[in-house]
User: What shape does this take?
Amino acid sequence: MAEQNLNIYQKLAKIRKQVEVIQRNKKGYGYTYVSEDEILAKISGFMDKYSLSLIPSVIHSSAVVTPYHTKKTKSTNKGEIYEENVNEVLVSADMVFTWVNNENPNERVDVPWILVGHQSDGSQSFGSGLSYAMRYFLLKFFNIATPDDDPDKWRSKQKAAGAAEDKMIAEEIIASFDTMVKEFLASNQDKTEEVKKFVAKYVKGGNYFAITESVLASKLLADFKETFKIKE
Assistant: This one.
């Protein structure tokens, strides 16, 4: 059952949050990658949950089919390396991927895209181009990370990066708080002990520089202004 009262952007954001990392599961041509079926398996269930459809469209007038000549390195059974001339067909076309809110079909998001494929014949080129286009559209649209190692390791790195950013924000708030406290005490020396007791409620020992969470730092600053009637 789709979640109610969410607009199309909120639904897409819900999916993005739940598919933020997919481990690469295929090997080929000297590298590892995430297969289309792996991506669709991860995303299609959430599309059903949030009642969304994805419509890929090819702009026919933009399609270009071009003979493509190249050389490919091959080896004999004896391990001898040689180059072989290969004739392929290069197909390219503009595309549009359209997200549709099934609960309100007038709500749509159009995303311009492109397909490019080359194989030994035109139909194969078109098919591979569509597969690549779909795979990379979903990966890039949802900002999905595709690490070689365990997704939990990637999430740990993501969490550490978030914590570092939050600490930096907290430090900026605390710097402002420190300036405010010093200015207040410069003209209210009799309030020194009262300020110390106030800060001790937020951090052990009263060392507010030890605060590394932006939420706590913000609350300390706001409560100090309210408690001591600070006007900026």
